[in-house]
Structures are given as C-alpha cells and as structure tokens.
Amino acid sequence: MFKNRLLVSHQKVPRPTYSIPLIIFAFLFSLLFSTYACAEEIENKTEMLVAKRLQQRYDSMKSLSFNFYQHTTAGVGGRPKVGEGQARFLKSTRTAFMRWDYLAPEEQVLTSDGEFFSMYFKELRQMIVTPAKNLESDITYSFFTGKGTLKKDFFLYPADANIAAELVESEKRQIIKLVPKKTQSQVQDIHVWVNTNSLITRMQIRDHFGTITVLSLSDIEIDSIADTIESLKDFSFTPPVGTEIIKQ
To answer: Is the pTM of this model over 0.70?
Structure first.
C-alpha cells in the first residue's frame, strides 16, 4: 500500500489524541451509509419525526462536504482547544469514501477508502493505518462503517433544558439528544442541531470525564462531488518522505 521510501512500523504505540473524536465520524457515517431505523419507542413524537426526517435526508445524498469549526473543553478548569478544517464524504458505487483535512491548529489528514482508516499527524511525522476488522467491536466504529443503527445503539430524547434554552425562534433549528445504550461507550451523550432542511449544523459530544466537544458546520454542499476516478483521488493521501507508518 505504501512505497518503500516511507518508514513502516507494526509496533503498538499510544494513539494520539484526535482533534475530532471518532464518534463524530461514526455519527455522520451512520446517517450517510445506514438504513434508517427510529430510536427507542418513546412518547416524544417531535424528536422521533426530526430523527426520521434527518435520516431520510442523509439517505438520499450521494455526497456531502462542509467546513467545520471545533471547540473542546476538558472538564472543570480545562483549557479550551479550538480547530478548523474541511470534510467530505462520497457514496461510490464501490464503497464509502471519507476525508477530513484538519487545517488548524496543526495539520492532520484522516481518510477512509472502505478498507483502511488512515490518520496522518504532521507534527508527529506519523501516519496510523487501521484495518476495519480491528475496530468492529467498538460502538463508534460500528457507526463509522455503517453497521450500526440509531435503534440498535442509541436512545433518543429531547434536548437538555440548558441546551434547548440556547435556541431562539429566529434560528429555526431543532435539537435532539442521543444517549449510547452500551455503558462502556466513552460518550455520555450527543446533542444534534438540525435545520429546516434536515441538515446537521452543529453537534455537541460529551464524554464521561466532562470533556465537551462542539462541532459547528458551515458551507454545507450536497451532491457536489461526482463519482469518478478523478474525484476518488481526492480521498487518498500520500504522506511526506520520512513519515513513520504505523500499522495497527
């Protein structure tokens, strides 16, 4: 897969802290590449309808791209971290493709060609390559590969009162809350902001340690990427000479 001029290693190394939690990839992939199934049967019909429209909207897409801005706060007294970049997804006739270009505060490139998930970290001069079969037991990766469904892995609830209070009528958005059913999940809950076009414009992910990551999406484009050989080249990444390739 990689040329000999790159340093290849099969050693087990501590995985870097990702600037964008894997659950974000997982959730977006669940929308783009899974068949809709409603969440837990509860009385909150409004949230059920929002979730259904959301899934149907993403089911109909062939491609999706957007700019993102991320803000992460690590518990009480933690220093906020911010970042930004671009992401794009494509439903090819062969498989699902994804690429995230993290432009600030440091360069990271994350790609998936349906067989491997690769993570390049410029500052570390490393690229981690992981086959899907090694992560299939992880709840977030099951979403990432399109094997999970909302009904299987999440309960659906109305937004928490403090988050719902942030909305004003002029925003014309709705918020739904997802809670993982598996207690061993690193994620405590996810809040999703949905606009009138049934598109996600914001996500808030909270883990069990109090870390909160907010991802805001802008310049969202639907079906702007063609399923051609030329387009698929954009979903691959060759790291610079001297990059250590770590296969896990």
So the answer is: yes
